[in-house]
C-alpha cells in the first residue's frame, strides 16, 4: 500500500530526505506539499510530489548514497534537458549539481518499459527512433563509450581493493577488441549513404510530429496493460 504524506509527517529517514528535498526547490517554498514513494530504480529514492494549487505533479529523484561513483549527474541532467528541448522527455524544473537532486514534471499515463514490452516490434521501433533523434541532437559536454565506462569501473574497483579473477587481463582484452570492431563498423557506416527508412522520425517530407513516437509508445503500453 502506497502511503501519501504531507510535509512534516515524515517517520523514516527516506521520508525526511524527500521532505528536505522538497524544501530546496525555490518555487515551492511557502506552499503545502504532499508526497508518496514510487516503485522502481536501483539506487535512487524516487517520489511523486503534489504541490497545493499546482495542476502538475512532479517526480523527485534523490540520488542514492555512492551512486556518484557510477553516474555523472551533471551530464545526466544535461542529457535530460536536451531531450526535453527536443520534445521527447519531461521538463526538469530543478537540479542541484552538488548532490544530483533532480525534480521534473511527472508524465501522467506513462510507465517504464519492461523486458517483456521489448518483445513488441512496434515498441522496439519507437524506442530506437527516439534514441536516434536524441543522438542526432546537441552533443553533451561529457561523452563516454561503454568501453570507457568498463575501464573506469575497473580502476574504481582497484582503488577500493576489490578482488579480481586470475584471468582479468584476458577479460579486459575483450572490451579492447570490441572497441576496435566498433570503430571499424562505424567507419563503414559513415561511408554508406543513410537509408531514409532507418531514420523514420527525422528525414524529409515524411517527418513525423515530435511527440508522435512517444505518444504511440504510450498507447501501445496502455493496450498491453489492459491484456
Description:
The structure is a single chain. With 227 residues, the protein is of the alpha+beta class. The chain has two domains: 5-105, Phosphorylase Kinase, domain 1; 117-225, no CATH class. 40% of the residues lie in helices and 13% in strands. It has six helices and six strands, in the order βαβββαββαααα. The protein has a six-stranded antiparallel beta sheet, with helices on both faces. Strand 5 (92-96) and strand 6 form a beta hairpin. Helix 3 packs antiparallel against helix 6. The longest helix is centred in the C-terminal third of the chain and has 24 residues, at 168-191. It is globular, with a radius of gyration of 21 Å. The protein starts with a strand and ends with a helix. Mean pLDDT is 80; it is low at 187-210.
Amino acid at each position: 500500500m502506497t502511503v501519501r504524506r504531507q510535509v512534516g509527517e515524515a517517520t523514516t529517514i527516506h521520508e525526511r530526505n524527500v521532505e528536505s528535498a522538497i524544501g530546496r526547490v525555490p518555487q515551492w517554498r511557502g506552499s503545502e506539499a504532499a508526497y508518496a514513494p514510487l516503485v522502481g530504480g536501483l539506487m535512487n529514492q524516487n517520489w511523486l510530489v503534489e504541490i497545493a494549487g499546482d495542476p502538475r505533479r512532479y517526480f523527485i529523484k534523490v540520488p542514492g548514497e555512492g551512486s556518484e561513483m557510477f553516474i555523472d549527474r551533471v551530464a545526466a541532467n544535461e542529457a535530460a534537458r536536451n531531450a526535453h528541448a527536443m520534445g521527447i522527455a519531461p521538463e526538469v524544473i530543478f537540479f542541484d549539481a552538488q548532490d544530483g537532486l533532480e525534480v521534473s514534471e511527472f508524465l501522467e499515463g506513462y510507465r517504464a518499459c519492461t523486458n517483456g514490452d521489448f518483445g513488441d516490434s512496434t515498441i522496439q521501433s519507437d524506442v530506437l527512433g527516439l534514441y536516434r533523434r536524441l543522438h542526432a541532437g546537441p552533443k553533451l559536454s561529457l561523452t563516454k563509450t561503454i568501453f570507457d565506462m568498463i575501464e573506469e569501473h575497473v580502476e574504481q574497483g582497484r582503488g577500493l581493493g576489490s578482488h579480481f579473477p586470475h584471468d582479468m587481463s584476458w577479460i579486459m582484452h575483450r572490451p579492447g577488441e570490441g572497441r576496435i570492431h566498433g570503430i571499424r563498423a562505424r567507419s563503414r557506416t559513415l561511408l554508406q549513404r543513410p537509408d531514409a527508412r532507418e531514420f523514420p522520425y527525422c528525414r524529409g517530407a515524411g517527418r513525423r510530429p515530435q511527440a508522435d513516437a512517444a505518444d504511440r509508445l504510450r498507447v501501445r503500453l496502455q493496450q498491453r496493460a489492459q491484456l
